[in-house]
Amino acid sequence: MTTTKNIGKATTPIVKNAGVKNVNPLAKVLKRAATRLAMSPKDLTTWLSQYPHLSQSTQESFLGLISEYGLNPRADELDLVQFETSCWQVFITINGWAKLINAHPAFCGIEFSEASKLEEGVPVWMGCTIYRTDRIKPIAVKEYFAEMKTEHAAWQQMPRRMLRHRAMQQCARLAFGITVPECKSAGMEVLPSRYDIKSLIPDTKSQSALSHSALLKARLLREGQITASED
């Protein structure tokens, strides 16, 4: 509300402070992400509350990817995994990459290739080529089995598929400029921020969250999306 006070011939405006409400900035990001997924902020918050001690930067990265690309964590297109104590990493699943590739307006086709030479019965490399309508030359990458293979079950049971997934992910990242911020090492992990998305709803039991984390890591190990050094 604005009033005026007469001082002689001059009129000086006087602004009365009606009080400024301190708005949680993370709530705005949450609302945008929930709107992109056509769900309520409460439902999205409930889903995220499964993961304990998320830093503000990790929460912002996660919600930012939802807002920008429309990736749906409930459809297994986007997820989080805990690599170190109190350090969570946002990652795009193979379902998410497939969605991003097909949804891009410039996408014009994808091809896979493989080496004729074998290593342990698997091509020594697999290549992925993505074509864009707005580029003269396609984007192509190769991923090598010797560099990608792990001792986990997925790589033992279906190494060709896992190598193809790696090639597709890296090619899509380069073709469309999609990046996911990496979490900092344990020594660089920031202290808990003043804003926490889980504060928007009642806390869940830590035991349930830890159990979910263990199941998630087990699934990623089976799919070969993380290695023993990342676990």
Structural commentary:
This protein is an alpha+beta fold and 231 residues long. It has one domain (25-223). 39% of the residues lie in helices and 22% in strands. It has helices at 25-36, 41-48, 56-69, 94-103, 145-148, 153-157, 159-176, 206-223, and strands at residues 2-7, 10-15, 78-84, 87-92, 107-114, 118-119, 122-123, 125-132, 139-144. The strands form 4 sheets. The chain has a 3-stranded antiparallel β-sheet. Strands 1-2 form a two-stranded antiparallel sheet.
> What's the SSE pattern?
EEHHHEEHEEEEEHHHH
How many domains, as an integer? 1
Q: From the helix content, strand content and strand pairing, which structural class follows? A: alpha+beta
Oligomer: single chain
Relevant terms:
about 230 residues; alpha+beta; 3-stranded antiparallel sheet; two-stranded antiparallel sheet; 8 helices; about 40% helix; globular
Explain the layout of strands and helices.
Layout: E1 2-7, E2 10-15, H1 25-36, H2 41-48, H3 56-69, E3 78-84, E4 87-92, H4 94-103, E5 107-114, E6 118-119, E7 122-123, E8 125-132, E9 139-144, H5 145-148, H6 153-157, H7 159-176, H8 206-223
Concise structural overview:
It is built from eight helices and nine strands. It has 231 residues and is α+β, with helices and mostly antiparallel strands. The protein starts with a strand and ends in an 8-residue tail after the last helix.
